[in-house]
Amino acid sequence: MSTTETPRTEACAADTAPVPEAERRRDPLRRMTALARPRAGRFALGVLLGAAATGAGVALLGVAAWMLATAASHPAITALGISVVATRALGVGRGVARYLERLVTHDAAFRTLAEVRVRVYRRLAATEPFGRFRSGDLVSRLVNDTEATLDLLVRGLTPPLVSLVTGGATVLVVTAVYAPGGALLAGGLLLAGLAVPWAAAALGRAPGRRQAVARGRLSTALVDTLHGAPDLIAYGAMDRQAARVYEADEELTRMARRDAAVLGLGAGATALITGLSVWGALFLGVLAVEGGSLDAVSLAVLVLVTLAAFEIVAPLPAVAAKLGAIRESGARLFGVLDTPAATAPAGRTGLDPHGDPSLRVRGLRVRYAEDGPWALDGVDLDVPAGETVAVVGPSGAGKSTLASVLLRFRDPDAGRVELGGADITAHPADEVRAVVSGVPQDPHVFASSLRENLRLARPEADEDDLWEALRRARLADEVEAMPEGLDTRVGTHGLGLSGGMVQRLALARALLAAPRVLVLDEPTAHLDPDTRDAVVADLLAAAEDYSTLLITHDLTGLDRVDRIVVVRDGRVVQTGTHAELLAAEGWYRDVHPDLA
User: Fold this and answer.
1) pTM of the predicted model, to two decimals?
2) Which CATH number is 25-337 given?
3) What pLDDT digit, counting tens, does each position of 42-95 carry?
4) End-to-end CA distance of the chain
5) CATH architecture for segment(s) 359-443+514-595
């Protein structure tokens, strides 16, 4: 058996490895910025291009001021030739540099965002996300909070660095023209580029933090309303639920207004500082011209360059005001990425898909919290090749936890699960699920056609394969009777199908995957008695060629299985055939409907 790891396996292992505590305590903004580290060179190039574009804009106004002031003295046309060429070059260069800056930084940011999304999806695939997050909140984390990374990298990282480079260069040039003017410009840029953004960040910190949470609350309310609409209408609760949605929306709207107010204050403060700095430069320049230390042309350049320089720091207050929301979005994003994986990274690959299908469980122990009770406490179980074993017991006995372990949705806390002698926890989940397939308690049916729902298990399956799977699941006759056959649309959540048809479709999908072991977890939980009996018969008939584990609290039809294991409080309390358990004292005989 091969023990080599593929690059894909290594990437998955890295994305699902435990996050060190020191890393988890770092500021979310720093952690989000670190996500762009593999593309630091591209972002540095983007900063240089941005500085070139911004610097070209400032230089363009400075050259224009020099040319106009010089032209007022009616010099020879040749004296203005260089400035005319420079104006054209700066105008064209500014546009080209800005385009390249946007191209480089957005390309790097979108590539980083794509990698972050992959990391989030891999982490969710290993952490039982729907047991940890509400569906609407999870959608908000996947979309809005993940895309906050893009906002930070494009709007929160590049503009401050561009302002630092271009602002410093502009102050040096103005200082060379007139030192007091350079000092005045440096002071104005510090106020507009540091003090105003700092104040905007302080004012926007609390609203921004609440805004990300409010966005998740609104998404949760909307998803709950849409998914629960039939029940809400049936119980007359739709108005109350709609009021919750309106309340969440109003809260988010109030925060957006506060955010707009902060942005307005930042823009107004920057405009005020710009105006005062320009008037100050004009006043100092006029005094210098009267004193003979500055000529009129240099005065024009000083004033207009001072005016243009504040375009460098103009975006910073808006960026700073959003840092609170971005930080909270980052915290919510890392709340997903830091969630411990339910399964450990695989140590090897190469699980034989055609090997021995016998299943062996020894000393299996599982619990959901370090100090919580054991959901499974020392379970021993054997499913020999080709046999059907039923695991029964009351609700809360640990039956579904057993299914989660077998399907590699979580790892045991102790014990061992072997498939053909191989420890399944040592192999990637995808390899295990290619060998162990199942029908869950609530199988998901996608709002697509029957054909596409089946091909989810094996995309390359042809028409004959699909019909064979339907025949084995006892669903072929119903599908043939449908006008559109395999192209029939099943509706959202399979509302166009009966409960029994949904279960049979899930079974056909599982059979199409060609597994060696079938795990049927409460396959008749929500069916009426007549449908339930028919589905059990069909499931057991279709499973005859597999090593099958039937997990159920329903004791109907268990006379057809090879062996029954009774689990209570996470422990195996009885084992035997249907006849043996009916003859012995215990839970099985006490609750069996034939003896009621």
Assistant:
1) 0.69
2) 1.20.1560.10
3) 999 999 999 999 999 999 988 888 888 888 777 766 667 777 888 888 889 999
4) 52
5) 3-Layer(aba) Sandwich (3.40)
